[in-house]
Amino acid sequence: MNGRRTAAVGAVATAAAATVTGAALTATAVTFARAVVTPRRHKPDDLDVLQVGPRRVVLSATADTVVPGRYGVWTDGGRGHFRVGDVLGADEDRVTRELLAVDSGVPAPGAGRWNQYYFAGDPTAALGLAHEDVLVPSEVGALPCWSVPGPAEGASHTWAVLVHGRGATREEALRAVPVLHDLGLPCLVPAYRNDADAPEAEPGLYGLGDTEWRDVEAVARYALDRGARRLLLVGWSMGGAIVLQLVARSALAGHVAALVLDGPVVDWFDVLDHQARQAGVPVRLGRLGLQLLGHPVGRRLVGLAGPVDLRAMDWVRRAEELALPVLLLHSDADDYVPSGPSQRLAQARPDLITYVASSTARHTKEWNVDPQGWESAVREFLAPRPGDAA
Fold first, then answer.
1. 191 burial type by CB count under 10 A (0-12 exposed, 13-18 middle, 19+ buried)
2. Is 232 within the bounds of a domain?
3. Which structural domain, as residue segments, surrounds residue 288?
4. To 10 degrees, the CA torsion angle through 298, 301, 306, 307?
5. C-alpha span between 177 and 160 (Å, rounded)
6. pLDDT at position 273 over 70
7. Does residue 7 register a pLDDT over 80?
8. Considering the domain boundaries, does residue 13 fall inside one?
9. SS3 160
10. Which segments constitute the AB hydrolase-1 domain (predicted)?
11. Is the separation of the CB atoms in 237 and 243 below 8 Å?
């Protein structure tokens, strides 16, 4: 009798432990999935400005500040901004970089925040290009958008719509505006749902492109209503996932002439497996989190209004469906969105995809490391082809 009771108690204890363990694993998966879809609006300072000279600045050494290329630094809580260039020297604790320009404020020792976009502010302040702040009607409300007209002479009937990535701002797109403007393209640079300066769509979480494409569709309609005949869609990171969903799902897809994708997400499973490993989360738990995103019930644990279909955003699997020319730029040193899926997509569709590889740029920083190379690739890709209309 005692033996049977002991066995029964042991079985109950084992079942209880399994339940607790299962609940803990599910909680970990939910936490991971929730982090993926939650906008990160507050961005704290992440470096120290140690010394400032006439032509150089000394910064604390971080994973960002030691890499080659052109970048910016926000200071004084975002009120100040300066731009830096080449690394002049570095050790374990500090890095000396060329000081290229001061855009606002007075550089001084203190806390700062790295600006991977290089430029800061709107197109007029950052680039010296006239622009208009417009509001584009959408299903979630009025979307703030920078509208940069093409040059008075030689303006194209093709308009560019530039879409930033997850957690980024419209400033991410500023690097591409000068070359597109020089080619005669009017540019629209919109915010989309749940950006800090855009309407919040319930429940205030990202759809990873599964919902945001409708906001870019509204911007595309705005362009077509104002004289655009064709559209060039440019996307960085999640912005690439967004524009790919537009060409797959929008009634306006027929007006899209081509895509330019920089460090794009073309396979969320690959990206989020990578990020799970970086976060120290077992990949199988990360995958459970991804399953929750797409599950009709599981998505409620994450807080989503509806399931997110990640398979529909796997463009390696859907490669045969592509029907537009694509310029795809992706660095093998991308630390956030691995380049493997982009490589596989380009290999699957060499008839449509022009792939530009690089080896030193971190995530979406291909322009920063080689501005001339990035712009030359865009110019060559957009060069008129036989039969193209103006």
1. buried
2. yes
3. 1-37+269-304
4. -40
5. 9
6. yes
7. no
8. yes
9. strand
10. 161-279
11. no
**Cα distance between the two ends of the chain:** 91
Which positions ≥6 away from 131 have C-beta within 8 Å? 122, 123, 124, 146, 147, 148, 149
Burial class (CB in 10 A: 0-12, 13-18, 19+), 76: middle
pLDDT at site 289: 86
pLDDT, tens only, 47-95: 999 999 999 999 999 999 999 999 999 999 999 999 999 999 999 999 9
107/144 same-domain check? no
Paired with 162 in beta bridges are 234
- The answer to whether 276 touches 173, Cβ cutoff 8 Å, is no
Q: Which of 7-11, 230-234, 251-255 has the lowest mean pLDDT?
A: 7-11
Question: Do 64 and 197 fall within a single domain?
Answer: no
- Please say if the pLDDT value at position 107 is more than 80: yes
Examine the domain organization and report whether 242 and 273 are in the same domain: no
Query: Considering its fold, how many domains does the chain have in total?
Result: 3
Contacts of 361 (CB under 8 A, 6+ apart): 69, 331, 333, 334, 368, 369, 370
289 in the same domain as 203? no
Tokens of 289: 């989190």
C-beta neighbour count of 51 within 10 angstroms: 13
